[in-house]
Design brief:
Keywords: Phosphopantetheine, Phosphoprotein. The chain has 563 residues and is an alpha/beta fold. The chain contains 20 helices and 22 strands. The chain folds into two domains: 398 residues, Rossmann fold; 119 residues, ANL, C-terminal domain (GMP Synthetase, Chain A, domain 3, 2-Layer Sandwich), CATH 3.30.300.30.
């Protein structure tokens, strides 16, 4: 019998680049399931169909031959192809096919606006646009806008995912390189989250991709590591596939842990309904997901009950909202996939007590430190150790010996090496009382059913200016009608004030509401950019602080319901 995929993979991964290694695995273990997709995107009740490593490898080779036929091999090394499509397996097929033919792909978060696409194309000197035939989708609307706005563009319609996965087996498209000879060559381009400004391209090399699973392979006792708990099982992936959170599970971690990755239907944006369909029909033991769909999941009794079908929900990209955790942990254990586009996924352990859902424990073999910043907050810093785990970031930043993650954590009161994520370093607000981090307070306020985002802007003389962004139809739904919103907001404001780490408080006269004329500037993840949001409402902030000083506290009017 052939060895398990993971055994062969880790033996060859040191010397063999991924596109070639997938062809080898297809020959060695042709029938091993690699991915599972719905039989019918519109009717998930029909169940899922497994695709083997051999079928996936054939799809990559078919795409590589297609690229060569349509474009020829890359005219200059690593020419950029921008691929825009619904979130499906074709992203990985095209990424690997592009590498085989001398190109590199550029892919964007599905929430990225057209300006972001155009900016990234400009930064990567990209003049080639690929997209599948997908009428009446958000992807094709972006494609049409890009084509209208960018001159000198070559645009090609690709075959569909079904075409790539057709039953015929094309010849293997040769990729004769060994890993050492191309280690620092480009592999693909994604982008930053744009939490503080425009999105920037992030270049992955073969070294970046290679070091990701090798770091997990160096853990001497991986029994507590989350991925090890899922070894050989079916794992749902509910993150966007065109960013790092989707890229990492599919391009190595699946082979490293013998996983079959299960994808939702691609009939629309990620939603609680698509998540529920996957849980009910996908036969998964764990799910990797961002937290965005969880409020809707928890609000639906059937969806919430169906969380019992999985053992683990692995949250990635942002923390689970604290007010949802008790509902979720009654059905499934929350764990974390932690890392960044630059660092890759770091080996994190599943904690024995489900009540510690908010805490992260990195494997002790990850070279890292938590360095004090202010109050109880510490910044996670990765350290270069050539033979250590979690080193992909130092393939990207080859002249650095340490890498600050920019994330702030607070220690567990009793468990050493367990840390709770509290926000980003750039979330810190300067005040007369010193630096403070407002995210714990904001999460409390965002538990209100009418509040989409809460941003504490700044502190003056013990008062905190608060900017509230209401859900667009909250007024019509009765969550926020005239003065009645204060009946439900004030208890949350009191709870938030109790968490304030400095002697200051939110006061009613310092509460501002956003308006439809000035929507909050968002990152590509969909969360507000704090500095830009604050500056957008700068005049209003100055006004409420001025009113508070002159009048001793005058309540701000609520927005009127839209006609």
């Amino acid at each position: 019998m052939p060895p398990p995929v993971s055994q062969y993979f880790l033996q060859r991964w040191h010397t063999t680049p991924l596109p070639r290694l997938i062809d080898e695995l297809a020959e060695l273990c042709p029938d091993r399931p690699m991915v599972s997709l719905p039989w019918d995107n519109d009717h998930p009740v029909k169940g899922y169909r497994d695709y083997s490593i051999a079928e996936f490898a054939a799809a990559v080779n078919r795409a590589a031959w297609w690229i060569e036929l349509q474009l020829g091999r890359a005219p200059t090394p690593f020419t950029t192809l921008h691929y825009v499509a619904p979130q499906d397996l074709s992203y990985f097929i095209l990424t690997l096919a592009a590498v085989k033919t001398g190109y590199k792909t550029l892919t964007c978060h599905p929430s990225a606006d057209v300006d972001t696409h155009l900016s990234l194309m400009e930064h990567t000197d990209c003049h080639l646009l690929l997209y599948p035939p997908c009428p009446n989708t958000a992807a094709i609307r972006k494609v049409n806008s890009i084509r209208a706005l960018k001159s000198g563009l070559t645009a090609l319609v690709t075959p569909t995912l079904d075409d790539w996965l057709s039953s015929t087996s094309p010849p293997v498209y040769p990729f004769p390189h060994d890993l050492a000879s191309i280690l620092h060559d480009p592999f693909t381009v994604i982008h930053s989250s744009a939490s503080t400004g425009p999105a920037k391209p992030i270049l992955f090399t073969h070294a970046t991709v290679c070091l990701q699973p090798l770091g997990f392979g160096k853990i001497r006792d991986p029994s507590h590591v989350n991925y090890e708990r899922w070894r050989g099982q079916r794992v749902g992936v509910l993150t966007p596939l065109s960013i790092a959170a989707g890229l990492f599970p599919f391009l190595a971690m699946n082979f490293c842990f013998d996983l079959t990755l299960v994808l939702p239907a691609t009939s629309g944006p990620m939603s609680a309904t698509l998540m529920d369909h996957l849980l009910v029909h996908g036969n998964v033991s764990a799910c990797i997901l961002g937290p965005k769909t969880l409020p809707d999941t928890c609000a639906n009794p059937t969806y919430l009950s169906n969380l019992r079908r999985v053992r683990y929900l692995a949250i990635v990209g942002a923390p689970c909202q604290p007010y949802l955790a008790p509902l979720i942990t009654a059905h499934a254990q929350i764990t974390h996939i932690y890392g960044s586009s630059e660092s890759g996924t770091l080996p994190a352990e599943v904690l024995p007590d489900p009540d510690d859902w908010a805490y992260l424990k990195l494997s002790p073999e990850v070279p890292h430190e938590y360095r004090p910043v202010c109050q109880s907050y510490h910044e996670l810093v990765l350290l270069r150790r050539p033979h250590g785990a979690a080193q992909p970031v130092f393939a990207m930043f080859r002249d650095q010996d340490e890498y600050p993650m920019g994330d702030l954590f607070a220690p567990h009161p009793t468990r050493p090496d367990c840390w709770r994520y509290c926000g980003r370093r750039n979330d810190l607000i300067g005040s007369e009382q010193g630096l403070f981090l407002p995210r714990d307070m904001e999460w409390v306020l965002e538990a209100h059913p009418a509040v989409r985002w809460a941003l504490i802007c700044e502190e003056r003389r013990g008062g905190l200016a608060l900017l509230l962004d209401l859900i667009p139809d909250a007024l019509e739904k009765g969550h926020a009608h005239d003065e009645n919103i204060w009946d439900t907001l004030l208890p949350l404001i009191e709870r938030a004030n109790a968490l304030c780490p400095i002697p200051a408080a939110i006061r009613r006269e310092l509460v501002l509401f956003t308006d439809s004329v000035r929507p909050l500037p968002l990152s590509v993840k969909g969360n507000p950019q704090r500095v830009r949001s604050r500056e957008l409402y700068r005049a209003d902030i100055e006004r409420v602080f001025g009113c508070a000083d002159r009048e001793g506290g005058v309540g701000m009017p609520l927005p009127s319901p839209s006609p």
